[in-house]
What we know:
265 residues, mainly alpha, two-stranded antiparallel sheet, 11 helices, 3% strand
Amino acid sequence: MLGNITLGQYYPAESFLHRLDPRTKILCTLAFVVSIFFADSWLAYGIVTAFTVFCFALSRLPAGLMWRAVKPLWIIIVFTLTIHVFTTPGEVLWQWGWLVVSKEGLRMGGMMTARLVFLIMFSSLVTYTTSPIVLTDGIEQLLNPFRRIGVPAHELAMMMTIALRFIPTLLQETERIMKAQTARGADFGSGNLIRRAKAMVPLLVPLFVSAFRRADELAVAMEARCYHGGDGRTRMHELVYGRLDVIAFAGTAAVFALLAALRWL
Length: 265
């Protein structure tokens, strides 16, 4: 169900990751995402798995949340696995007509699928452990140095955070409309691809109307509160790097260096 998609949701808790500076979590996530692409052996993927499990344990999140983050994208995961299994040349293990499964295809498919799952899980950890307001401040602070070349740091951070914030809301709205249309006789699950696409029209029209209405209401609310961007804006809690952030940077840097060494040395 669409309600199982957890991208953009925040889970309040008291943990090591929740107490980290948002800039630390963003930078460490980017570094870890890059380091995942260094992995080209089962040993390297074992290190990535161990680090991901360790970070999840530090977050003190319910185990079901990670499954909920990956579950909605199972079609993409299976598609990635299938493409690599049947298109990578190598030692043939099974063949039926033009379908060929090779040993190298299974290895590449397994690694690419694992890479995709780790990217989803680790990215979800950031939104699970960081509130939207704090995430906005972190993104803005990281983009501030680029304001000298004309990058609208505050506006970009605000748009990204609003988008993340309203993903769960729009998904809930979509599910509500689907249930209402189903109760009126709409069928979204049967027929060929073209018929299913046509069945989505009664869903998309009210969804777009609802999305534009929410956007207009948000704009009016921001104007009523005299919102004029980031100029002269102060914060109740200033972002400050602490000892925990240094530990997080050191741990991520160690994993980054280790995976790079395994790749090239």
